[in-house]
Amino acid sequence: MESAHLKAFADAEEMEISFGPQHPSTHGVLRLMVKVDGERILDVKPIIGYLHRGTEKLFERETYNGCIPHTDRMDYTAAVTNNQGLVGAVEKLMGITIPPRAAYLRMILAELQRLASHLVWLATHALDIGAQTPYFYCFEERDKILDLFEEYCGARLTTNCMRVGGMPFELTAGWTDRCRAFIDQFPAKVADWERILTKNRIWRERTVGVGVISAADAIEWGLTGPPLRGSGVRWDIRKVFPYDRYDEVEFDIPIGTNGDTYDRYLVRMEEMRQSVRIIRQCLERLPEGPVMAKVPKVIKPPKGEVYFSVEAPKGELGYYLVSEGGDTPYRLHVRPACFINLQALPEMVRGQLVADLVAVIGTLDIVLGEIDR
Amino acid sequence: MSWWDKLVAFIPLELVQGLGVTGKYLFRKKVTVQYPEQRLEPKDRFRGMFGFSEERCIVCHNCAKACPIDIIHITDHFEESVVDGKKRKKKVLDRYDIDLKRCMFCGLCEEACPTKPVAIWLTTKTYETAAYERNERLYLDKVRLQTWDGVLPFPGVKAPAEGGMPEDPKAEKKAAGGEGA
Amino acid sequence: MPEPLMTYLVIPLVKIVVILLVLILGAAYLTFFERKILAYIQIRLGPNRVGPKGWLQAIADALKLFVKEDLTPARSEKFVFLLAPVLIIVPALLVFAVIPFGPSDIWRLTDINVALLFVLGVSSVGIYGIILGGWSSNNKYSLMGGLRSAAQLISYEVPMGFAVVTVVVMAGSLSLVRIVEVQRELGVWFFLPGIVALFVYFVCGVAETNRNPFDLPEAESELVGGFHTEYSGMKWAFFFLGEYANMIVISAMATVLFFGGWLPPFPNLLEPLWTSSALAWVPPPFWFLLKVAAFIFLYMWFRGTFPRYRFDQLMRLGWKVLLPVSLANLMVVALGVLMLGERS
Q1: How far apart are the first and last CA of chain A?
Q2: Which residues of A touch B125 (CB under 8 A)?
Q3: C42 and A132: CB-CB below 8 Å?
Q4: Which pLDDT tens digit goes with each residue over A285-308?
Q5: Model's pTM, two decimal places?
Q6: Cβ-Cβ contacts under 8 Å for B152 (sequence gap 6 or more)
Q7: What is the CATH number of the domain that holds A223?
Q8: Residue A24 domain flag
Q9: Sign of the CA dihedral C40, C42, C47, C49?
Q10: A194–chain B nearest CA distance, Å
């Protein structure tokens, strides 16, 4: 029996590795069953659900404003854009137009959040590929953004900083100056990180041609956000279905050509610069006025259903809201960007090496809080 | 690409450039905060430990209703008293408990509070609420919410019972106006 | 005490003890310096709590590893599992038998005429520790780490050998003492004529010690802990010490082969300065250690900057770039030596 066991072991050409859920580079509690031949990946099967908290079910018993703190905890690196999507959906159903100042504030906060989220992505992505130092540089900058959040709404990570109908707070005195000071010094930092990584031959070898997905495939898989744009599809919710006041600011949508990890890296780096550009314009144009529209004390959207999506840092974050006219949603479904982007992972890594797997997980920029909800 | 360009590209100049960046940061001022000795002061709006004032509370239950995870438990009863010869019914607070261990510090209770100044607030800058026994230490009744018994306040912050309450915006305005006049 | 006993037993024993102590302590403290340097590159402060300015951190780490539970996985190959850490640390320490720290006999343990061969031979045994450790753990991640290191060993031993041969051609000797002496006599250190060899040697050295950017056998983000995933306590400490001792070996060898060993820097330009009364008392090992420290700093700087190669890219770099380059360089250097005539 022993020898039969040994023989089976010796004859086996495939090895199955359980990658995670406590693996250092699965960005949370993702578990991957990886079938490898030596170091070459034959197949990958993601297993999710370790962080499931039943958020969508929880929504059904919350008032609309009470849902907002729960959305903070979905994509916990981008709480602001999560809030933005939810309040946008409710406002769309109720037909509320928020005051211009509130819209601009939302844009500023959302773009700051995009920076913060991309900083976490760059930090962990570089760490996975073995460059540990950018991690700390990114987190230094991210801390400055979180300081701005803390000053505005009192929390750094789970911001809960939007309400149906506008924004709960007025800016504190001097906030815009501090924000401007931050974005003025930020592009130089991006340039520094690019000097470490962009032309670095090791970085290029690790990312160019790794995790390739063609534009057609990317669309078929329903990818959104940087993974889609890296493949060369110019698709950005902020441009195609502008919400808030994104139609009033100028910015470009960076796209890649090859759809590989390196292109997605370049896309995100450029997106950071574009976000800075948007924030600068918003700060210049920030109108005076109220930050809250007139909304009833108890929010009861009319009976009906609505889909509203925002361009979250990870991709399209959509909320599908069904209201029965009560003060709680009948059903509030979330279209998470990460969950759908993750589905393309097996396609992207099949036939590549184990080392590429972590690079591709990093480049998809997944957050398990949003995948499992 | 000529062979000369290829040869030049072979020399790892960009690696040296990367070393230059990290070398530059080697001599930069460090950003570490030595935590127990140094502390960053939370911003004014920072949502931390609860403060509660029983005298301000009008027992309207708005905070409990606003709480997304129902961790504020309130019970009350009516007490009749005679004021100016008229019978008045007054709500009296029996129990005001906050299950801090489940709290997600969203601040919706503070926003829902109708009194001015608010009777429940999180802007206490106090965040060191870790405890060895969470069921006991992190379940705050109305007395502990005011005395902060067993809570480590942020340096310089007083417990609500000792007067560490948010100012009345009207009183402040009045005081400022009084000085002006 | 009879004279032979003194020369052949007592003095060497004392030297061995001193070298081992200094080496192990040095390796332990390298972990501290590495953490400090990495921290400073990463705009943080690093360990500064244990003892004044954190200087006792290395001791605290060592103590912790001593008292930590030593786990052996149930289905591992027990004997090999035990053997692997020994295999990695012993060769690393053994190399120091022939490394000359100074010009006279007190500053070295021994001077054998094939010292360089000895170093190459002994230090390549160390890699078996990694392979066996990875295999015997009975863990898939460890196994992959071990396999990667086997591939790495084969790819990098060869160009490294050629880089070293370049020096041998220039010096005309395999004795490390003689190599330094030649550099002194010529007044030129071998890194100038052998700049390519130095580059190849150092890249291979980084790869041989499994350090960033070639740290794939223990690539944390891919293989959790690589070959030492299952190790804990003192066995793990041996792997750790072995890695740092190997770093010292590679740096010391680079110093001896290319940077004039114990000679003070810029011997031609600053000759009067080094022989002046102010600096003449500086013992030669000081210069040696200074140069070694510079190399080790480079190691840490690399770790703070570069991403990690993938294992097929590492092989390609070894076979397709470093090997031809080192071969061509060897030919050029040999030709140069031939043209310039016999070394005096």
Answers
A1: 46
A2: none
A3: yes
A4: 888 888 888 888 888 888 888 999
A5: 0.85
A6: B126, B128, B129
A7: 1.10.645.10
A8: no
A9: positive
A10: 9
